[in-house]
Amino acid sequence: MNIPEKELVIVLDFGGQYNQLIARRVRECNVYCEILPYTTSIEKIKELSPSGLIFTGGPNSVYDENSPHIDKEIFELGIPVLGICYGCQLMAYTLDGVVTAAIDNSSCEYGMAKAYYKADDVLFNSLPESGTSWMSHRDYISQVPSGFTVTAHTDVCPVAAMSCPERNLYGVQFHPEVNHTENGKEMLRAFLYNVCKCKGTWKMENFIDQTVDELRQEIGDKGVVLGLSGGVDSSVAAALLSKAVGKQLTCVFVDQGLMRKDEGDYVEETFTKLFDMNFVRVNCQETFLSKLKGIDEPEAKRKVIGEEFYKVFWDKIREDYGTGYFAQGTIYPDRIESGKGDAATIKTHHNQVKRPEDIKFEGVIEPLKDLFKDEVRIVGEMLGLPHELVWRQPFPGPGLGVRIIGEITAERVKLLQEADAVLRDEMTKCGYEKELSQFFAVLPGVKTVGVMGDSRTYDELIAIRAVTTDDFMTADWAKIPYEILGRVSNRIINEVEHVNRVVYDITSKPPGTVEWE
Predict the structure, then answer these.
(1) pLDDT tens string 174-224
(2) How far apart are CA 238 and CA 306, in angstroms?
(3) Which residue among the candidates 7, 29, 33, 85 is catalytic per the annotation?
(4) 420 neighbors 441 (Cβ within 8 angstroms)
(5) Which residue stretches of 192-297 are H helix?
(6) Distances (CA, A) of 240 to 31, 205, 382
(7) Which of 175, 196, 308, 418 is catalytic?
(8) Beta pairing partners, 152
(9) pLDDT higher than threshold 60 for residue 100
(10) Angle at 131 between CA 125 and CA 137, to 5 degrees
(11) Is position 164 annotated as part of the catalytic site?
């Protein structure tokens, strides 16, 4: 099997909010990319031998001694560098240019700005002479370093881009990685292909072939155990491992009874019919509900659900499966967000938690550890997973436990499952689900007075939540047409017992969050 060598571009992270987006844009250009902290040593960078380096933005001022800085030697390695926002200012500052604070805010830019480009620069020579760019900066470059040329400006920013082609050093003050910047992807592509001389060998077909080959070599004739949640990541990991080692794979699916209506049966049917593997389902709703009895505080519920899940899962492993290898559906953002180098831990993911010391596997296998979510979905489609599973919306680890406000009981779980199923069915029928990033029903635990069949009722309220977003860092409430909301409300009230009122959540993120708990 002839698999091309993996090209590598490194994104050095200086605390920018768009670091993952930069890496995704690079990969969309068929170039493999990894994110490393700015503290990565020069020796490590040399060892990795990347085709190019990209410096991210960041919230600091380069002239502040406590801000992230970089060794000047990095610009002497002969590796092409593209600095973005703070990365551009850092390049200028480190190479003896001048970065200035906009004291009167005359050179500050936040949001859209029109940039004017030099047509003979490699980043812009195939583009119109100007375009809208996304800016987010307080400081600005007032003097470029020796050997650099100003290649773009705006009405208030004298250096919107600069370059030193002789040294393959480029910087842009704006953010080419965001959709708001016109032709931003073309600028990144120009850097990758025309400056870094990448060939674009990062393709999902190559990834699958290479990963399957590597898995077979690593696993040999040993067994593999995977915790299958039914989510996208673990499902694609299961499909990939099944393709590699077939019946040597055992998937353990813990159904804690807090999934959406009929979802446990759907997961079992999918993996027992489509793939060659051993599928073990553990039904334990009663156990979970008994542990949750009387608990209504959100974090306490999360803690109980998480602890009980791991207890049930590892107890099952101890029965018969604690040998060979342990597989996880870890993806690349999991590894970044869970803390890397001196980066702060944003959140600890379920697949980054330590395993019990008494269970000794020969090793841990993470076949998706280098992929972003959108790449995982592509792999899933190519491996034959159902479209509705691959493009399944985000679902919280505690399941419906955080969509039921207050105590969780079997009756409340069933009520919410039925209401949520109606919502999903109606959105599918009208085709509006494609317009939404995430939508679901919530049981707030509020009872209201109603009139049904000429009789007074005092029953449950269902809230509907639907958002649109590109990255889930921010989200807007979805403007679902009234007639669709009306049909959903009418069906829920008529088809779900003990519900007499439906409301729609019109809160954006921020100030709200997507989930209610």
Answers:
(1) 999 988 888 999 999 999 999 999 999 988 888 999 999 999 999 999 999
(2) 22
(3) 85
(4) yes
(5) 204-219, 232-245, 263-274, 285-292
(6) 22, 12, 10
(7) 175
(8) 117, 161
(9) yes
(10) 110
(11) no
* Nearest Cα to Cα of residue 478 among 439, 513, 421, 420: 439
Tell me how many degrees the CA angle 276-278-283 measures, rounded to the nearest 5: 130
Going by C-alpha positions, the residue among 60, 38, 45, 52 that lies closest to residue 340 is: 38
Contacts of 59 (CB under 8 A, 6+ apart): 15, 86
Rounded CA separation 393/207 (Å): 24
69 catalytic? Reply is no
Which pTM value belongs to this model? 0.76
Q: Is the pLDDT of residue 378 over 50?
A: yes
* Average model confidence (pLDDT) across the chain: 89
Structure tokens at 139: 């400081």
pLDDT at 353 over 60: no
Question: Taking the CB of residue 185, how many other CB atoms lie within 10 A of it?
Answer: 16
Q: What is the mean pLDDT of residues 484-499?
A: 97
What DSSP element (H or E) covers 54?
Answer: strand 52-55
pLDDT at 259 over 90: yes
Bridge partners, 276 (sequence order): none
Question: Residue 373 burial by CB count (10 A; 0-12/13-18/19+): exposed, middle or buried?
Answer: middle
Choosing from 109, 177, 182, 375, the catalytic residue is 177
Quick one: pLDDT band at residue 106, thresholds 50, 70, 90?
low
DSSP code for 183: T
What is the rounded CA–CA span in Å between residue 283 and residue 264?
A: 9
169-172 and 161-164 strand pairing: antiparallel
Give SS3 for 208: helix
175 is catalytic: yes
